[in-house]
Amino acid sequence: MVGVLTLEFFLDYSHSLKEKRRFINSFTDRLKNRFNVSVSEIGFQENWQRTIIAVAMVNSQQAVIQQVLTRILDEAHTCAEALLSGYQFYYY
Fold first, then answer.
1. Number of domains composing the chain
2. Which end of the chain is more exposed for a tag (fewer CB within 10 A), N or C?
3. How confident is the model at residue 64, as a pLDDT?
């Protein structure tokens, strides 16, 4: 099974792509280290106040994938640097 979670963020404080990249690098590194998942920015690369980040995980049990992706979603909700404006789960 493959699970993908897309997270759309609005970065109200960001005034440049450099500030946006600082948030993205910090957030994606934290997810990679804590949850052992693959993470990449997939949308709004040239917009300095919006981003879409995809998180992917592979496991033989869908329940494990759902549990990990839900924990990641909870972490995204509590992120102080950005406002989570949308999310979507996909399972293959």
1. 1
2. C
3. 97
Q: Which residues contact 56 (CB under 8 A, 6 or more apart)?
A: 2, 3, 4, 37, 38, 39
* CATH code, domain carrying 30: 3.30.70.1120
The closest alpha carbon to 50, from 79, 83, 76, 75, belongs to 83
Enter the pTM of the model. 0.92
Residue that has been written with the tokens 């950005």 in this structure:
82
CA–CA separation, 48 vs 78, rounded Å? 21
Structural domain that includes position 54 = 2-91
Distance of alpha carbon 1 from alpha carbon 91, whole angstroms: 7
Residues 91 and 2 sit within 8 Å (Cβ to Cβ): yes
